[in-house]
Amino acid sequence: MSEALRWESQPPRLTLHGELDRETLVPLWDVRKKLMSGITCLDVSGLERVDSSGLALLVHLREEASQQGVDLTIAGITDRLNTLITLYNLQDIIPAA
């Protein structure tokens, strides 16, 4: 069973903790528009695990931010997450900060 996803918002930074996977991402998805307001840096260093669903959410958050004229930086990318980004050939969409 996945560890719950937690977050801490201190604009302009949003820090994620726990696991970001298909079982844990729904609460974040439900509040993403309000939560991302004023956020320019998404810190993922506190994530212990990210699966392909979690990676898709990160891509989506960057795209939503871009549509609002915000360059969302994703900080704290671990080696494991970077490997997943590389496997999906998303280095241009989620560059390592």
Automatic annotation (TrEMBL):
Pfam families: STAS_2
Membrane-crossing residue ranges in chain numbering: none
Domain of life: Bacteria
InterPro entries for this protein: MlaB, MlaB-like_STAS, MlaB_ABC_Transporter, STAS_dom, STAS_dom_sf
Domain STAS: 14-97
PANTHER family reported in the protein's UniProt record: BLR2341 PROTEIN, INTERMEMBRANE PHOSPHOLIPID TRANSPORT SYSTEM BINDING PROTEIN MLAB
Protein name as it appears in the record: Lipid asymmetry maintenance protein MlaB
Organism: Rahnella woolbedingensis
Gene: mlaB
